[in-house]
Design brief:
about 220 residues, single chain, alpha/beta, binds cytidine-5'-monophosphate, 8 strands, three-stranded antiparallel β-sheet, five-stranded parallel β-sheet
């Protein structure tokens, strides 16, 4: 069986960075499921597809919605490739995050994306980053990590990330929006954000990425 390591947790807990570091080190594939949802949100917007006409466009979406990820370089976000274009910076904005968080609460959308996520399981292994990787999508994965950190620390990390992309953001607004999205992810009916019973929970508030990877390796 192809091994899968799931990394779940709220926004800014460090999932992307850690998934990237592990994928590069192990030379495994990477699935950034948040970016997958973001890309679907972007593609729907581009093609004027909404929840109302989603079913009528399902065949079109199935044929065209092919996303791939490149772990890229440490320190930079995992790269999102769609229709032969690098759309990383298009989908990784706070505006897209907000739209995505609303869409991702919809069972129709989650069901559509489910098989797309499972297609990423290819040899030699997969690092899957998201909210429900360990609880729903890869519930039989042997290794499950749940990363968490204080809201303040997570907002600070997000701010650094956005600044690096040349985007200006207000810390207070960022924190408020991050908490709102977390609340929505935790309280939603379908695939809410929660650690799997058999996951290892790591609080990354006072750890640097190398420290987190070290902890994970000890566990592995
Ligand atoms: O991780 P990222 O911030 O890119 O995720 C964007 C949004 O997608 C999250 O706020 C969450 O609502 C949703 N998401 C999800 N399930 C996943 C990954 C992301 O609902 N597995």
């Amino acid at each position: 069986m192809i091994p899968v390591i799931t990394i779940d947790g709220p926004s800014g807990a460090g999932k992307g960075t850690i998934a990237q570091m592990l994928a590069i080190e192990l030379n495994w594939n990477i699935l950034d499921s948040g970016a997958l949802y973001r890309t679907l949100a972007y593609f729907m917007k581009e093609n004027s597809i909404s929840l109302e006409n989603f079913k009528d466009n399902q065949d079109f979406l199935k044929a065209r919605f092919k996303v791939s990820f490149d772990p890229g370089t440490p320190g930079e976000p995992v790269r999102v490739i769609f229709e032969k274009q690098d759309i990383t910076h298009i989908v990784r904005t706070e505006e897209m995050a907000k739209i995505t968080s609303n869409l991702a609460a919809e069972p129709l959308i989650r069901e559509f994306i489910k098989p797309c996520q499972r297609e990423f399981v290819t040899a030699p292994g997969l690092i899957a980053d998201g909210r429900d990787m360990g609880t729903v999508i890869f519930h039989d994965a042997k290794h499950k990590i749940f990363l968490t950190a204080s809201a303040k620390e997570r907002a600070k990390r997000r701010q650094t990330q956005l600044k690096r992309q040349g985007l200006k953001v207000n810390m207070r607004t960022l924190l408020k929006e991050l908490e709102e999205r977390d609340k929505k992810d935790i309280e939603r009916e379908h695939s809410p954000l929660a650690p799997a019973d058999d996951s290892v929970i790591i609080d990354t508030t006072n750890l640097n990425p190398k420290g987190v990877v070290k902890k994970i390796k000890t566990y592995l």
